Amino acid sequence: EVQLVESGGGWVQPGGSLRLSCAASGFVFSSFAMTMTWVRQAPGKSFEWVSTISAGGVRTYADSVRGRFTISRDNALNTVYLQMDSLTPEDTAMYYCAADAWVAPSRWADVSAYMYWGQGTQVTVSS
Hints:
The chain is mainly β. The protein is built from no helices and 11 strands.
């Protein structure tokens, strides 16, 4: 059974940083070419794609976070990370880790392309 467990969320003041982690189990995502993605959902809004990293380490970001967020993965630990810097209140949301076996690059930003989802971790940015 595939499981994704996020951690690292919390409250931070504007301009601060947080590092989210997503631990995967039930598959070895380096072996199965798993595409890993972060998605967020603010209160009352739909899901918003944030960032994707391919099995080969190719990274892509939404315009709203590019230059502030960094996605990375540690295949030995089956873990993907999201380093979030220069946070603003607009980044407040539930952050989800999502994954699937080889998602085509043309679909990386399509949240419906991912079969496996974690339970989410809340990020709140306020003063």
